[in-house]
Specification:
Elements: H1 2-16, H2 19-40, H3 44-55, H4 61-69, H5 77-114, H6 134-148, E1 152-153, E2 159-160, H7 162-165, E3 184-186, E4 195-197, H8 202-211, E5 216-225, E6 237-246, H9 252-267, E7 271-280, E8 283-293, E9 296-306, H10 308-313, E10 323-329, H11 330-338, H12 351-354
Parallel strand pairs: 1-5
Antiparallel strand pairs: 2-4, 3-4, 5-6, 6-10, 7-8, 8-9, 9-10
Helix pairs in contact: 1-3, 1-4, 2-3, 2-4, 2-5, 3-5, 4-5, 6-11
This protein binds 3,4-dihydroxyphenylalanine.
3,4-dihydroxyphenylalanine (DAH) is lined by residues 200, 202, 242, 280, 283, 301-304, 325-327.
């Protein structure tokens, strides 16, 4: 409707316009039309139609008239332009008044009929937007902290072969960690080696070292899978942080410094890091990492110097390079930081729990 009117107005006026007086007359006519149409608007829909017809940015009638401005002579144009701007202001003001009037009328009507007028002086109610899951927030935080020490974030696949999940990590064929009861094997045909859902992110160490030269500093955070019964501290799917540094001259002291820096940055404040002797097939020596924060010690994961057998498996020369690695449980560090007693809460999808982060 608006555009056909506009074409008429435009077409006619372009044909018969002669100079400033005709231009001014055209604008006055348009102004009068606009006032009449706005005054006749019965509701907000009518009013919006009127706005589009007269003030619409692309095909409003007022916009159409701007083209006629160029038909004026250079001396007429300033006066014509001013007249045009005045008209636009007038129509906008008339429109805004009508709109306000309608809003007030609508509020009063609501008040009398439903007894609940909208009191626009009351404070607003903020709508809460969604946010990232606490585990995702934790992952991003860990990545950010580790990046400050030059550790680059990398990813690896969740479906792995036995070379990357076990063999290259010096977990031999008879090792109990390969037991079918302790892994999610995904099987395939007779005679074909089964793949599995990775049981640890240490797989990523191998994938990175196979493809890159030392020196290296990487961190990899992702899901791992073990057929554990879910309880307050176990879940069949959970997340690990895997760190790997390969550099000439690296030592256990560097490992401890990195872990202490990480723990202090992640938990904040006073944190102590303790190593307890342990065993992992892919590190020598191996340690369990405990952290003390808020007066309580908690076991966070394992670490150690990368075993020369692993360096050889990926084609590095163990006489040339050394390095350390560590693997921590993401749910564990998140639970510790946020005071969550049961890691199952992270996966119940109860909004009342998730909203707190
Ligand atoms: N992958 C081990 C686990 O899942 C944790 C671990 C221990 C990772 C020692 C490491 C490490 O990188 O050096 O229990």
């Amino acid at each position: 409707m608006a555009s056909s009117d506009e074409t008429n107005a435009d077409g006619n006026s372009q044909a018969c316009l002669a100079g400033l007086p005709a231009f001014v007359a055209e604008i006055d006519r348009l102004c009068a039309d606009a006032k009449a149409v706005i005054a006749a608007a019965r509701n907000e829909v009518d009013l919006e139609k009127a706005r589009i017809e007269f003030l619409g940015a692309r095909s409003g009638r007022l916009k159409g008239i701007t083209r006629l401005l160029s038909g004026l002579s250079a001396s007429e144009r300033p006066v014509g332009g001013k007249h045009f701007n005045d008209a636009k202001e007038t129509i906008t003001a008339v429109f805004n008044e009508a709109k306000d009037r309608m809003a007030v009328a609508a509020a009063q009507e609501g008040g009398s009929s439903a007894g609940a007028a909208i009191d626009i002086t009351l404070p607003g109610k903020q709508l809460r937007l969604g946010h990232l899951h606490p585990i995702t927030q934790t992952i991003r935080r860990v990545q950010e902290i580790m990046s400050r020490l030059g550790f680059e974030s990398v990813d690896g696949p969740e479906v792995e072969d036995q070379w990357h999940n076990f063999e290259a990590l010096a977990i031999g064929p008879e090792h109990p960690a390969r037991d079918p009861l302790d892994n999610f094997y995904l099987t395939v045909a007779q005679g074909v080696e089964p793949l599995l859902l990775r049981s640890q992110t240490s797989t990523v160490q191998i994938r990175v070292m196979e493809n890159r030269e030392a020196p290296l500093r990487i961190v990899s955070l992702g899901r791992v899978y073990r057929p554990d019964t879910a309880d307050a501290t176990h879940y069949p799917m959970f997340h690990q942080v895997e760190g790997l540094l390969i550099e000439k001259g690296s030592t256990m002291a560097h490992l401890k410094s990195v872990l202490r820096f990480f723990a202090a940055s992640f938990l904040g404040g006073d944190v102590r890091v303790r190593f307890r002797p342990s065993f992992f097939p892919f590190t020598e020596p191996s340690v369990e990492v405990d952290m003390e924060w808020g007066g309580r010690w908690i076991e966070m994961g394992g670490a150690g110097m990368v075993d020369p057998a692993v360096l050889k498996a990926v084609g590095y020369d163990p006489h040339e390079v050394s390095g350390f690695a560590f693997g921590l449980g993401v749910e564990r560090i998140a639970a510790r930081r946020y005071g969550v007693a049961d890691i199952r809460d992270f996966y119940r999808n109860d909004v009342r729990f998730l909203e707190q982060f």
